[in-house]
């Protein structure tokens, strides 16, 4: 993962005003650039310096979660730009199904799993949007292992 | 074994302690905490920023953007008078905590 992807991974899911998210991204990027420059001065090549700087920064989602918690506990971290509509749609479908006798209690925390209990007509678009929402960072995590958890 | 929770709960005190000696940006702050604690308080550096922003929102530190060359900016943090007061109180609390705990352990 490069610095741009890492910073995007931290900032993408933050439910904060746009200016705040931009500032957080800029500050984090600046930190990483300082770290890379330091490491290069110690003889590490650029690519390895970037990886080491990112490793020292810690898992991107842990940072994003910490920001979400510090800013306002009720501003839950969502892992993508499309997560909120997905959660709302899943919650609505869950409520409808619950009224009809189906129990889908986990919809809020795990939308992809929750859609298994949703009728086929609703399932496909929900799965598609949930996938869109989480694919970028989870792909990065799969690629980078512990770097983005 | 002393867990991460204790270290995490000391983060604000660590930050304020280091900033008491002068304003720093986040990367310098991470290095300084690591240096002064001889690596004991080495943390995942990215987690410093949520803590710094919280301290800033509480008025305990003041952040200011500074230009680095032509293209880049860094946010520099300085302790405020409220931060100094908070540091004095939390230092006293940590001293009491450590003293009482050691007294219990060594009794």
The count of β-strands of chain B is 3
Q: What is the helix content of chain A?
A: 55-70%
Rg estimate of chain B, integer Å? 15 Å
Percent strand of chain A equals: under 5%
Strand order of the largest sheet of chain B: 1-3-2
Counted by DSSP, the helix tally of chain B is 5
What is the helix/strand order of chain B? HHEHHEEH
Report the CATH architecture of chain B.
Answer: Orthogonal Bundle
State the helical fraction of chain B: 55-70%
How can the largest sheet of chain B be summarized?
3 strands, antiparallel
Task: Give the largest chain-chain interface (CB within 8 Å).
Answer: A-B, 24 and 19 residues
Q: Please give the number of β-strands of chain A.
A: 0
What are the segments of chain A in which pLDDT stays under 50 over at least 5 consecutive residues? 74-91, 100-135, 139-149
Identify the quaternary structure here.
Answer: heterodimer
CATH topology of chain B: Arc Repressor Mutant, subunit A
Name some characteristics of this structure.
heterodimer; A: 149 residues; mainly alpha; disordered C terminus; B: alpha+beta; 3-stranded antiparallel sheet; 5 helices; 3 strands; elongated
Report a brief summary of the structure:
With 149 residues, chain A is mainly alpha-helical. Helix content of chain A is 69%, strand content 0%. Chain A has seven helices and no strands.
